[in-house]
Amino acid sequence: MALPKRIIKETERLVTDPVSGIIATPHEENLRYFDVSLEGPPGTPYEGGVFKLELFLPEDYPMTAPRLRFLTRIYHPNIDRLGRICLDVLKDHWSPAMQIRTILLSVQALLSSPNPDDPLANDVAAIWKENEPLAVQTAKEWTEKYAM
Amino acid sequence: MGNTVTKEAGATIQSSKYSGMEQSNICENDNTDRTQWHLCKQDLVHKIHRSKRSSKSHKKVMEGYEMIADPTETVDGGFLFPQGVYTGAQDFKVSVVRELIIRRKLAPFYKGLDGIDSSCTDEQLLSALNTNTNSVVSDSHETESATTVNSSDTDASISTNTTLQSENIKINNEEQIWLYRNVTECPICFLDYPRLNNTSCCGYDICTECFVQIKRNPPHPPHNAEQTGDVLELLSEPSACPFCARSDFGVTFEAPPFEWGISSTVDPLPRNQKSTSIVKIDECSLTSPTGPFKVTIDMIRPDWEDKLISARAKLARKSAAAQALHRSAILPSTNTHASSTPETKHSKQHKSRSVLPDIRFSKNKPKTLTEADVQNANSYSEVLESARGMDRAQLRALEKLMLDEAIKASMAQT
């Protein structure tokens, strides 16, 4: 099945006009499937780490959100041990005006501002709320261990 | 190249007019469409079109929703049906969208150009238009012959319509070049169009192809359902603007200063389809001179309310079945567990909590449950009554479903 023009153009524009700290490369055999590398934002416990994600554009993209998952382990209240991400714009707040680049920027923003009140990883969120310095320390350790 | 093909098309259609008289079982319009589609060997719309046709015999399409893909019907150089940017099933109300386009309240479905820069020659532009697209109406031969066939239709009003069209829709290459010399990119599909709609909230451009894809999210429980316990309530919210996320989403369209193709004053409904939709739109004052006319998603998908009602009914049925099981699952506990205290029978809170172990118990020993229950609970015998005649696998599936529902319901009550 032919690839929609939008996906072709988005891919081209990701190459010609890359976002700093984000690399998304499509698989040769499946141009809807992307390998993503995301740099941990500075000033966060994820700084210095490079996180691998997988991104898939479903059949009815852009009318439905891309599917996105962390492959690198990360200590974050909104990302569970399977790498699934709790982010509204990946679910019911997705809009077809968003793009691969904007969704990846949203994920980067989520790393900068964890939201333990709407957790996906309950254990991590509990520690984040009870003892934030400890949580941040653990997140740093995980970043060093898994993302460097 | 295009010319020879379309001339052949004319010939084929002409001959089908004479020889096809006996083919009374084939609708005349089908005949026209099919011949044209056969000639336009473009993939996407062709496929959609054929799948629509083939599925038609199996599945009844609701009135007003059936796709009408007639490339001879044009409005200001665009069409009345999607041009294949989106290949999934189309579920908007076709009759409403047709009317909105003809009334110039929504941009027609133009062919989306892909990355043609402004320095290209007219020939390059035309060939890009013709290869990009799924059907071509630039040749008057095809138009006229199609009209000839159409005029053999028994419905007199249609013949008048199409005669009018044939005078109007001679969209020649010059017009196409003129139109497509000044294009704007739709920020959703990234294709270039001569004219776009604008969102009424924030003024962003959006092509009709993308606009008709937008729909309400499926009905869902309220966001604070877990706190309020309203898990049996379902809500459906209007679609939000894709650009600014404001909830009151709709688009306006500034009609061009010219009018090509079907006149905006003509009766937009094809064939003998006199649907009620026209009245509905008129109620919203289609012809109102006050301000631009806002087209909303609910207008082109008026079935959202039916969908919500049926989703609610489905949930209510499920919960009723779960309640029946819920009640019956508590009762055997008083019989089979002699240790149960009287409070567990009467205190609502305890009741709900006690249900989980009881269910487990009943699952392990269904016989005990049945005996105890047929004696004690009318509701359960009702359930049994309805379960009679099912085979073992069906019963097991039903039991599983009801257990799931009962657990949900009991969680909601605590």
Automatic annotation (TrEMBL), chain A:
Its EC number is 2.3.2.23. InterPro entries: UBC, UBQ-conjugating_AS, UBQ-conjugating_enzyme/RWD. The keyword Transferase applies. Keywords: ATP-binding, Nucleotide-binding, Transferase, Ubl conjugation pathway. GO terms for molecular function: ATP binding; ubiquitin conjugating enzyme activity. Residues 2-148 form the UBC core domain. The keyword Nucleotide-binding applies. Pfam families: UQ_con. The active site is at 86 (glycyl thioester intermediate). Belongs to the ubiquitin-conjugating enzyme family. This is E2 ubiquitin-conjugating enzyme.
From TrEMBL, chain B:
Residues 331-342 have a biased composition (Polar residues). It comes from the Eukaryota. Residues 326-372 are annotated as: Disordered. GO terms for cellular component: cytoplasm. Belongs to the SIP5 family. This is Sip5 protein.
